Amino acid sequence: MVLAPALGLAVIWAVLPARSFWCMDEANRFLQTHALTLDGAGMPPALPYPGSESLGDSALAERLRPLPGQYGFIRNGRLFSQYSPIPAMIAAPFYALLGQKGIYVPALVCGAVLAVTLSGLLRSLGHPRRTSLLLAFFAVPVPFYSLTFFSHGMALLLILAGVTLLRRNMTAAAFLAVALAASLRIETVFALPLLLSTAERKPSAGSLIVAAALSSALFLLLQKTLTGSWLGTHLASSGTQSGIYGAVEASWLGSRPAILRRAFINAMPGYRADGLVLGLLLWGLWGFSRLRPDTPPGIMAAIIGPVLTLIPLAALFIRGLRSTDTMDIQNPLLTFPLLWLAAPSRRTLLAAAAGAGTMLCLMSPMHAEDVAWGFRLGMPLFLLPCLAPPVPGRAGSAAPVLVVGILATAASLSLLTARRIRGNELLELTDRGGAPVITTSWEQPQDLAPLMVEGTPVLHAATTHDLYSALKIFEHREPLVMVRRESVILLSEVLEAAGMTWEPAGAGPAGDPVTDALVFRCRRR
């Protein structure tokens, strides 16, 4: 029974398409992993940027880099990622052994261990053994994050280690575990107050000071050693160049309601009023079921709430499994169904609210516009209240939670599969014997990262001037240009000015806004 999570994840991993990616973050870390397997790769590793030597002007190389916005930066003529290289370092041996599919092995192993560890903690709260294992696998997004090149599974596993260590009164070790988690996912620092709220005995002030000092030193040392920055390049760049995401014209105060809605409330694809209404209704039912747990209305609320989450899950399939629909469905009660069984004390609930409030104050709109499964930056805030010692009389039924969890897992893995299949089709369309690929949309280079490691130039032209420059530089190599359908007329004007002809090379899958693009082969007249 304990091996079931590992076996299930391994089977899905074996059959899941692996050449394309779910999002830019995965492609970014894949390029890091490839760089680390090359001779002489330093820290941080310089990413492959084929074609940059032909650009000449360093400013042009900066503007045409395939990792736009804050995702990457040019330093001394070389391309670097904003992310910590720790996940890439862990994945590098598996990549060298198994190829691109190997980059998912560490997340897969961590997911299996996470499920078993979480199952043990749930058993300690009174859940039956088999139910605990099923909840740990399906009622948290373990499968999705175990089959993507993300570091969330590793970070959550370290958070659970912190829970166990703190319950054994090992305060410094618990804080060090959180520091390691923060080096993978900086938002896990918001788990510290929650971590303390779950402790059966409050640590002394002296032990807290020592633990905070040691963990801070470890975090800063890791960031400086691996990224060259004391805070890390990810934290330093967070929120910068966010114009590529849109929704940046509002003031700080004016953007808070939109961030709150998208990250914590919305529960339907499309970002319409129905998503806001349903999300608020779900939280209302959850709160009522916690306040009146032993009454018939409270019991009904705990059943009706999970049943209502089936509506947006069905909507995802009806709309054609668009990966961008996940940006509008981030309500934790839908993507983290274990919350329907959480019965946290007032202290834990206040700590979770304080963490969420602090996060909300610090977030920029770009942090909420996430295509991952649920509001992934808040995972520790959702997980730890589920592990707090339950308040007597607030137990819930696991049956509806398991049903929702199984269906939510099916939806998330279906979205992942559809996204990878579409990405593979786009990749095959642009794989034309090393011909340079010029994209005009900042999201599109993500699927072309495998071409980059094979030596194919992939460039992102954000302006007509940059597109013209890229076309002229690579005109002798018959470059491919990938544009959204609404940009075809603009492309024709730029090609006319560049003295080039063009012919259709194909179209990407129309079921996803990222891959819904037209590809043209361009030649000199």
Task: Give the overall shape.
Answer: globular
**Amount of helix:** 40-55%
Structural class: alpha/beta
Instruction: Please compute the radius of gyration using only Cα atoms.
Output: 24 Å
Question: How is the biggest beta sheet arranged?
Answer: 5 strands, mixed
Strand order of the largest sheet: 4-3-5-7-6
How far apart are the first and last residues' alpha carbons, in Å? 66 Å
Strand content: 5-15%
Q: Flag low-confidence runs.
A: none
Task: Please report the total strand number as a whole number.
Answer: 7
Query: Would you tell me the overall average pLDDT?
Result: 91
Q: Figure out the total of helices.
A: 24
Question: Which terms would index this structure?
Answer:
525 residues; 5-stranded mixed beta sheet; alpha/beta
Question: Could you walk me through the main structural features you see in this protein, from its secondary elements to its overall organization?
Answer:
This protein has 525 residues and is an alpha/beta fold. 55% of the residues lie in helices and 6% in strands. It is built from 24 helices and seven strands. It has a five-stranded mixed sheet, sandwiched between helices. α22 links the parallel β3 and β4. α9 (171-184) runs parallel beside α11 (205-227) and α14 runs antiparallel to α15 (296-308). The radius of gyration is 24 Å and the shape is globular. The protein starts with a helix and ends with a strand. The mean pLDDT is 91.
